[in-house]
Amino acid sequence: MASPKIILYTNRGCPWAHRAHIILKELGLEYEEVTIDLSVPREPWYLEVNPRGLVPSLSYNGNIITESGIVAQFLADAHPSHLLPASGPAENALYRARLSFFVDAFFSKVIPHFFTSLRSTSDADRDAAVELLVAGIVKEVEPLLADTEGKGPFFGGSDKLTLAEVLSGSFLLRILGLSKPEYGLVSAKLPALLEQQAPRFKRWAEATIAHESVNYIWDEKAVAERMRARFAAQNVSVQDECLTAFNEFRLSKGKTKYIIYKISDNKKDVVVDAVGHDQDYEVFREQLAASKDSQGRPAPRYAVYDVEYDLGGGEGKRSKIIFISWVPSDTPTLWSMIYASTREVLKNALNLSASIHADDKSDIEWKTVLFEASGGKAGK
Asked: What is the pLDDT of residues 86-115, one digit of tens each?
């Protein structure tokens, strides 16, 4: 039987996409990996692959499969292995039902408290979230691991990975890894609480995250930094001055050409950085690209620019305000993620649709901006 042609559309920092990496690795399947940048709006070509714009998506001999749980289930069924028995006879069906119940209990009774911890802004709140997380494990998950005693370390006493570990492994990496004190994301009390109250779960989780198929793409420090940025961005608010300046900009009838916005150094507010009146687009482009942080390093910014153009052919002059997200390629990861997470907040507050994400000056040449503002009728 010929090997299937598999293309995985993924982002290794996403725990849901990570599931697909685990099962493909464990099954020993070869595949082409296409990375999807989740920090910017999805490219039109990817929305044709997956209209929801999510990862993972799997192309299997040209057939598109989406949603991580469905992708994993499909691969487990299409390539029978130790991960999951066939659905029949009844004994196998019962095992599959128990595995599904176990995974559901983990994600419905435990994971919500993990996300609460990530959103917490104080040690007390993180401690409270972890206490609820452990309580959920003790009540809902620990009893389901009772039959692992004296057997293999994985679900049901298996000595090899099962679909349960495939579906939960990427989250176990985050729960245990991000509880280290240096990250300040999950209470450092977690390991001791698990040892005291849920020892079977702790042994199962540690065995799972130690498995090569689970951890081979894991970058703990990078994930921790992205998590900090993502949840810090949730506390960023758009100041009234931003909206006031934008309304005045719209009413100026072209006299004001652009506004440049920035996120304050305390990572809490979007504020106005500059307002410009020069009609020469290159003046704006140079000013945006020259933006610096408080230490004189290249810095990200947002901007709005009033693009005026003439379509010719009797269609007359047009004007369109375009939103620009400027994040230089050498921006520190934390700031890059905060700007990526806050972009839509500001863009929606200004009620703008046309936009460009740029990390290099070549991305915001006049012809590119004109093309986007005109809906492809002018420019490129």
From this structure: 988 999 999 999 999 999 999 999 999 999
pTM for the whole thing? 0.75
**Tell me: domain 1-81, CATH 3.90.1150.10, correct?**
no
Convert the pLDDT of each residue in 245-303 to its tens digit: 999 999 998 899 999 999 998 888 999 999 999 999 999 999 999 999 888 889 999 99
Residue 217 phi/psi, 5° resolution? Answer: -110, 5
Q: Domain coordinates of the chain in residue numbers?
A: 1-81, 104-235, 237-374
Short-list 231, 221, 168, CA closest to 16: 168
Best CATH choice for the domain 104-235 from the list 1.20.1050.10, 1.10.287.1040, 3.30.230.10, 1.20.1250.20: 1.20.1050.10
Quick one: CATH architecture of 237-374? 3-Layer(aba) Sandwich (3.40)
